[in-house]
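Morning run. Coffee first, then this:
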Amino acid sequence: MIGTLDPDQNERERQLLEAIREQGITPETIRHFRGLILSHYRTHGRDLPWRRTTDPYRILVSEIMLQQTQVERVAARYPEFLERFPDFEMLARAPRSEVLLAWQGMGYNRRAIALQKTAGRVVDEYGGDLPADVETLATFPGIGKATAAAICAYAFNMPVVYIETNIRRTFIHFFFQDREGVRDDEIFPLVEQALDRGNPREWYGALMDYGTILKKRTANPNRRSASYARQSRFEGSDRQVRGKILALVLEEGTVTEEQVVARVGEDADRVKRILGDLEKEGFIAESEGTYTCR
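And here it is:
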């Protein structure tokens, strides 16, 4: 069960933490660490839809969705999105309004536009085949180095080295006990040392799941990361208002600024500014005082 360890695993974790405190980081403690993480995964690993495929398109979609959205929400929306846009060609050629409609409820809508632009590049420049290369993938819209590496690990089982939230949390918990201000450049060599090069796909899935249970079981180790920052409040934020406005335009097809103010219930100057931002970013288009989705 996610969020728990069985008694044997709990004892193994306690012993490993003690061994690392006493012996430091050694090949032996790294080996025990890898064994503990994989043992938990093989017993309690989550059955997630993107773990049932190695199709590069499906892996790409899941990784973009997971960047800033909770796993549970992605798991619910992912199959619906794939049903509407089953491959690079279908996504690349779809009207943007349809893509944004399918994305509703996921948040950070610019990811949907970036995903569609990436699909267009894959179709137009790579013959519909996603490149199996971290450096190349990192040049695509909405894909940084970490996401590019994750795609290569999960789609192509490549032994790449990368850090993201759950990976960082797991390594800080075990190898930086009682440390504050832990830098990623301190964690990175340990990620490389611990990597299961025979099956990086399974290994990174295991790290992700262990990081998830740590968030539930302990004070979040990521608070001791030098890169830790609290997420800004969503309620009442521009991000919330942007989502409301975009949803309204998608629902109605065409709206005026006055209609948006009335329906969204926000200050007119704020609505005008956000409408301008959405237009500049390519979400909507303005013509003679009315707004439509691009």
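DSSP finds 15 helices and three strands in the chain. Good start to the day.
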